[in-house]
Please model this.
Amino acid sequence: MRLDKYLKVSRLIKRRTVANEACDAGRVIVNGKPARASYEVKVGDEVTVQLGNRDITVEIVSVQETVAKADATNLYRIK
Model:
């Protein structure tokens, strides 16, 4: 699954276009390197998203195409 879609499905970022723009601006880092929106995420990747003044670092636990809103937090673990 593409990184921008994963960020939307996991609800770390609300809209895919915003996730895409964040990747283009270099505010999304995967495994220590800035990542493009087209990066294929996999279980075990460490993703850091810079939102305003704070950074959120998560480890990907599961990759699913669709997920209920209540279950979105089961896709990652906050570090």
In short: The domain at 3-78 is CATH 3.10.290.10 (Structural Genomics Hypothetical 15.5 Kd Protein In mrcA-pckA Intergenic Region; Chain A). Residues 16-24 form the longest helix (9 residues).
